[in-house]
Amino acid sequence: MLKVGLLGAGRIGHVHAVNIAGHMRSQLVAVSDVHQEAARTLADRHGAEARTSDAILNDPDIDAALIATSTDTHSDLIEAAARAGKAVLCEKPVDLSLERARACLRSVQNLGVPVMIGFNRRFDANFAGLKTSLRAGDIGRPELLSITSFDPAPPPVDYVKVSGGLFRDMMIHDFDMSNFIMDAMPVSVHAVGSSIVDPAIGAAGDVDTAVVTLTYADGRLAVIKNSRRAVYGYDQRVELLGSDGLLQAGNMLENTVVRSTATGVVSGKPTYFFLERYMAAYAAEWDAFLAACLDGAPVPVTLADGIAALAMAEAATESARTGRTVPVPG
Amino acid sequence: MLKVGLLGAGRIGHVHAVNIAGHMRSQLVAVSDVHQEAARTLADRHGAEARTSDAILNDPDIDAALIATSTDTHSDLIEAAARAGKAVLCEKPVDLSLERARACLRSVQNLGVPVMIGFNRRFDANFAGLKTSLRAGDIGRPELLSITSFDPAPPPVDYVKVSGGLFRDMMIHDFDMSNFIMDAMPVSVHAVGSSIVDPAIGAAGDVDTAVVTLTYADGRLAVIKNSRRAVYGYDQRVELLGSDGLLQAGNMLENTVVRSTATGVVSGKPTYFFLERYMAAYAAEWDAFLAACLDGAPVPVTLADGIAALAMAEAATESARTGRTVPVPG
Amino acid sequence: MLKVGLLGAGRIGHVHAVNIAGHMRSQLVAVSDVHQEAARTLADRHGAEARTSDAILNDPDIDAALIATSTDTHSDLIEAAARAGKAVLCEKPVDLSLERARACLRSVQNLGVPVMIGFNRRFDANFAGLKTSLRAGDIGRPELLSITSFDPAPPPVDYVKVSGGLFRDMMIHDFDMSNFIMDAMPVSVHAVGSSIVDPAIGAAGDVDTAVVTLTYADGRLAVIKNSRRAVYGYDQRVELLGSDGLLQAGNMLENTVVRSTATGVVSGKPTYFFLERYMAAYAAEWDAFLAACLDGAPVPVTLADGIAALAMAEAATESARTGRTVPVPG
Amino acid sequence: MLKVGLLGAGRIGHVHAVNIAGHMRSQLVAVSDVHQEAARTLADRHGAEARTSDAILNDPDIDAALIATSTDTHSDLIEAAARAGKAVLCEKPVDLSLERARACLRSVQNLGVPVMIGFNRRFDANFAGLKTSLRAGDIGRPELLSITSFDPAPPPVDYVKVSGGLFRDMMIHDFDMSNFIMDAMPVSVHAVGSSIVDPAIGAAGDVDTAVVTLTYADGRLAVIKNSRRAVYGYDQRVELLGSDGLLQAGNMLENTVVRSTATGVVSGKPTYFFLERYMAAYAAEWDAFLAACLDGAPVPVTLADGIAALAMAEAATESARTGRTVPVPG
């Protein structure tokens, strides 16, 4: 039984609280948030206490910290929690600064505690199933990867301004997915971006539509497409061409109802957004973290994985700005 | 907050226990079972007490009884619970005897407590979605209904012998589904059955494959197909032709992975059996029961609904035996 | 090179003319029709002559007759053509009278000429592919067959009155399909019909919606569903459950375009009617007839096959009228 | 009635011959080929004459020339045919040299004869259907286009050596498709390529796998993926994200049979290669050419369209070689 303190009682904190409290092998002991009221409400719902994050990290009875606070606090909290001997599951991204994230890794890497980054999509049954099939050799050697990742609607411009930009905020998930599928970092990144969905996003210095091409040392290629707006719902697909075939992982649909009328054949839309699509993935992620903490299983998504995705995001940001292909540090 | 006693700690009792204990508006207070050890294990897991069913029904602090015991006890327990003032959710079928079920209805109908029968499939998002679309007028007037319902593998012959036969045990779900979709009872039933999957089922006096045709007073038709064996998984589909189109509700798949190779294009199989397919439906069913108990919403599946399905099963059993079309009592 | 006379220059005659004239191994020599002008127009288009049917059947240079005239002339023309030594491909049905069709068979069976009935659906790539998979053992032993066959719109009531009724006119294709797939005649037929699509069809003594259940000597079952109206297009599907799996053959779609918007995901409708759906099947049928005539291949759909389907249609008509299950003569 | 001379009796010449001879509004008069025997065989099959290409172009009775010879002869033959007053349909590409193609355009543009380039995919019902839906405003303003185009198997290396390279030989179809869909040329092209399918292709100086990103003046983006090998068959898909939704056009399948067994759910593969997939598109292309020649309809794919695609291929070739983004001349 893992005793857990949850730092951050926002939307994603609520998701984690349900999984922590509902799992037979973990217990939600305490919740903190910069808004004390939010912490109290969430804590009450699950029979936990509302505390400060310091109080959580200093409590010797707490085994693990789940960090679901704002991005700018991640590195500090990872270091503090790890130094306090807590196992850590931290939401992505590690940091908006690659340098700071690397320093964080140096700080904690010899402390002997599990530190996991919350790239939840690796635990989606569809993407995990694709990976399983690839590992089984179903399509031979991978050659060309395509990732499509569209959000249903753009975020507020105020969020965009502090997000670190599309490549660090949104495509970072896809960079991690490419690393997960390809089992390697690319050697170079080429990115083009555009603010065609919402000019205000362009005015804020960001893009809302982007295409990134990744080149691997052995000649494999990958392409990632992002858009901040797909009015039909969250569109999350992965497709991998290999020497012996093609693997595709598609969207989950609202339901299986098909309606055929004189005007056409209509089927269900993709589930609306990440909470609907990835609810089961968050539960599987928590299960995997428990296995790492309680059973000694390897940490499935390491801090180094988080830094790798961040390095790719940084390269993509530079490429989109300069128009040049940017090498990725080995 | 509804305080609930669960009668029956078998496989389906476990499913209900999770939903009762996990819902914000209900609390699992006590569990009973003919095997005390089973009751204790399940009660412990959810912080409830193991008791006898009498103790549960006599506890004035308990608001509702969920009856998940063997079929032969259903009518007696419904009556006892309702007389004790408990709201009741009872697993299907009400009884193997239509006469006994009708007597049960007479006993409880004036007691003023909600009594709901657990036809879980009405709460499946796919079938409920089909019904919603029908109600919205998407396909005009319904004309021809088809229900396909195949189990992945036949039950043990010992079970078959006490099951009441395929029509009462398995197709009863589909009879209720036809009533749910068509909003009417048929006027006659024609059934053919065969024991082609397993001759031992035939030797036990039952069938394992059956086709039933329903005729409605206004000329509408329905056909139900059952098989005890579909090696690819639980196959649960509904299809409705109407004056303005067709509605289809299909299977849930394991995942969305598609694998294209030189030998073909392979996609996921249907989820294996009812626990996988209908897990979300059981939760939605519980939620609907809570709405009936706590919010005064109408009971969505009544005892009369359970009797209607049973009457159709009885008619089908007779039709399959005699080869004749059998009228359904109005 | 087979020299062919075409009897009948109506809609289906036009389809056959294109296939005869376009095939490398056949030549369209002459066309007849009760409307001489229709014969002349069609003949001119393909460089053939317009003649009377007598002139065609008496021409020793003509090897084969394709009979695409009205149903009431089929038996007479089959006999006349076969006696004149012509190979015969005759459109379905052989006759509306089972007795007359049997007499026709007795007349021609010893004449030594190929006589084929035009059950075109056996040559549809989807249904033929299903049969190929069945023969390959992909799903083991067949157990339960379902045929769905809906027309896009009901025919004029004047046509209905002379059609012989839905079972002889429309479902006869499905009876042949069941024989093709199951490789056996059923031992009994149960039919229910309804005139729910168009009351005028009921007033004319026919049904427009029907469900037929077939029982086989070895316990296999089949169900056929017909409707005269599916506003979304021609709906032609076959589904076969076997001991090792399920085979399904579905509709051809207009195109593969899928449109996802805020209101739903819309894909192409089935091709509109039989000419669109079965155009390739008619060409494959002609190719198979040429193989029977020129290469000594067995006739793939015999006159006896035509009579078998007609016997089932007669039994279904009686069952729908009486409400009783009707045995099929062995 | 258009009288047509066919130059080139190879594989694609055979496809065109069937369409020319089979169309009610055209007649195949003569066929030429560098291999006289090939010309004679094809001409005989369709009742045409075998001639030299000079004899065809000098025959005043011939209205149009279909050029299906080797690429290096295209420009010369287009010029000769147009000067002889023939309408021209020429297979893609116009030329491997952009300069020569432009000279060809200058030569013929004032001659007043229709000159059409054979980008057959524009006439595929799926891609044409996507374009129709786009024009109808179904997805609003287009933002992000994706084209997937995989061949089933790589060509012989000897062919690769004279092909002009993947971008001119294979992706040129996709460049034209992007122009067709986007109704604009991009302002810049970025390409990466790899010879991961077959090292011999790399040794011959070409690539077999490539990703190209196109940037448009108004901020729209497009990505094209090519591979010379998809072992499951010809994979030809287009996907377009717009402000109001997504359009997808997919593959044609061998048939609609779906086989569900204990090992999975297997459906038909894509049709094998371009002749299977695009047979109907070639016929529609010919029909459109006839409309331009006989009805005064605008030429649907002009010589300028052919040059635009070639200019993009040249830019992509340079980008893949240098690693730099290459502007496309306006």
From TrEMBL, chains A, B, C, D:
It comes from the Bacteria. Pfam families: GFO_IDH_MocA, GFO_IDH_MocA_C. InterPro entries: Gfo/Idh/MocA-like_OxRdtase_C, Gfo/Idh/MocA-like_OxRdtase_N, Myo_inos_IolG, NAD(P)-bd_dom_sf. Residues 133-328 form the Gfo/Idh/MocA-like oxidoreductase C-terminal domain. Residues 2-119 form the Gfo/Idh/MocA-like oxidoreductase N-terminal domain. Belongs to the Gfo/Idh/MocA family. This is Inositol 2-dehydrogenase.
